[in-house]
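Need residues for this backbone.
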């Protein structure tokens, strides 16, 4: 069995070859929000939610709209007058694991983003690291602070 240091090193090597799924999720949500904001008068923001694991370690989550296959809905509900090409979406809370932005595996299931130092908000610091990775693949149209927000949940 590999130790945690070797696992973290392996994860970082893997994301150098291709983006992590967490980064793909965040990029997708920001792209959708930017597209929406270009076409609609009411602006949409992307919220990243942080929860404390330890005093200096945080876990991140994001709400995404998950598409539900029509056949799955038919199994649970009787739907009248709905065509089979109708797309249903349901919001879902997803853990946001982005090794490129500092997510690491730690002992005792206390995985998360390590935030050291002071001076300003630790969640905001981690969000900045995430967005610096996003901007390598996707230019953000407007001021990112009005587009992406972070909140701490219990």
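Answer:
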């Amino acid at each position: 069995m590999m130790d945690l240091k070797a696992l973290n090193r392996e994860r970082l090597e893997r994301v150098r070859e291709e983006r992590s799924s967490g980064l793909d999720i965040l990029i997708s949500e920001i792209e959708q929000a930017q597209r929406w904001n270009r076409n609609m008068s009411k602006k949409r923001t992307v919220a990243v939610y942080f929860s404390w694991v330890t005093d200096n370690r945080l876990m991140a989550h994001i709400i995404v709209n998950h598409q539900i296959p029509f056949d799955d809905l038919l199994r649970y509900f009787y739907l009248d007058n709905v065509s089979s090409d109708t797309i249903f979406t349901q919001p879902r809370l997803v853990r946001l694991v982005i090794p490129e932005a500092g997510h690491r595996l730690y002992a005792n299931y206390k995985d998360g983003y390590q935030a050291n130092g002071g001076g300003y908000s630790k969640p905001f610091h981690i969000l900045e690291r995430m967005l610096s990775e996003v901007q390598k693949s996707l230019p953000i149209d407007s001021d990112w602070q009005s587009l992406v927000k972070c909140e701490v949940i219990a």
